[in-house]
Recover the amino acids of this structure.
């Protein structure tokens, strides 16, 4: 451990805005991107299920 | 043809790759967290202050991995495009599309963290330097690829058009990589200086390599999540995809 206090760690020797701006943006993207990708995967499955049900229904009706 | 080759081709089929990808995702997520925690620990708590740049140099621990990934993901996409053109495999086009958003974000992060590093060290957020400009072009290539492939409805035609863009644009990668040698740039040459005391360079290098591994695992996990959606979408008329969608087989 190279820091004497938590405040010193946060201050980053005067470069706080630059250092935390870099790590923060990276963290933000690495949290938001997986959430969006997961959500999109779930939406795709839900949409394809609806389409599949609609297709089987219409093919059943046309057979009658 | 030997057995191992047959196995590789078996996994190249969407029907077998879909469940395999699903099983691999948790492992890559775990490795991302593991390497990330170790890399951040070394980078933020163990690596000593730089004698020239103070604490500002710590941006290196996200800047370099993001830059490496932005170039490497593009190379992987170009590789898949080439495989798609020569072997006509269905999965390759899906892989390029699954990788593109993560690649674009890595290129963005490289530029963003670069700007935040450039301001305190050079006094400018941005300069039209060879390294920076070619990295900006890489971001535009990613955005162009995403726009082009999503504008074409037929997936096979979208793959072809996107593949051509990828293979033409790949020329930009060596330009980025060697730009600091070919031109007189403001961007520093090598990222890790071996002229500093060896123990310090070693800790910095380890921190950076661990962060790079973290970014690798992250990109693979994201690409796998995304490719599963693309596979289902494109294979929705096949029996195996219908079985998954109707819940007959495990997802």
């Amino acid at each position: 451990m190279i820091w004497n206090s938590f405040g010193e760690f946060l201050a980053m020797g005067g470069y706080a805005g630059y250092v935390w701006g870099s790590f923060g943006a990276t963290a933000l993207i690495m949290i938001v991107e997986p959430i969006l990708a997961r959500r999109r995967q779930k939406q795709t499955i839900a949409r394809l299920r609806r389409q599949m049900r609609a297709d089987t229904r219409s093919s059943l009706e046309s057979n009658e | 043809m030997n057995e191992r080759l047959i196995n590789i081709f078996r996994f190249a089929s969407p029907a077998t790759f879909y469940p395999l990808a699903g099983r691999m995702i948790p492992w890559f997520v775990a490795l991302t967290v593991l390497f990330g925690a170790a890399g951040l620990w070394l980078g933020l708590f163990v690596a000593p202050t730089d004698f020239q740049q103070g604490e500002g140099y710590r941006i290196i621990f996200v800047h370099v991995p993001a830059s490496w990934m932005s170039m490497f993901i593009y190379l992987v996409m170009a590789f898949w495009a080439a495989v798609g053109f020569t072997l006509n495999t269905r999965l390759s086009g899906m892989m390029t599309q699954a990788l593109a958003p993560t690649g674009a974000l890595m290129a963005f992060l490289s530029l963003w963290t670069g700007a935040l590093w450039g301001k305190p060290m050079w006094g400018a957020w941005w300069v039209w330097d060879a390294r920076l400009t070619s990295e900006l072009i890489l971001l535009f290539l990613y955005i162009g690829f995403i726009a082009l492939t999503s504008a074409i409805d037929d997936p096979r035609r979208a793959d072809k058009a996107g593949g051509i863009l990828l293979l033409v644009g790949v020329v930009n990668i060596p330009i980025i990589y060697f730009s600091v040698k070919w031109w007189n740039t403001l961007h520093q040459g090598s990222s890790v200086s071996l002229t500093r005391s060896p123990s310090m360079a070693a800790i910095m290098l380890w921190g950076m390599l661990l962060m790079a591994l973290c970014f690798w695992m992250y990109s693979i996990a994201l690409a796998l999540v995304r490719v599963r959606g693309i596979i289902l979408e494109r294979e929705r008329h096949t029996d195996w995809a219908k079985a998954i969608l109707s819940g007959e087989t495990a997802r």
About this structure: The two ends of chain B are 32 Å apart (CA to CA).
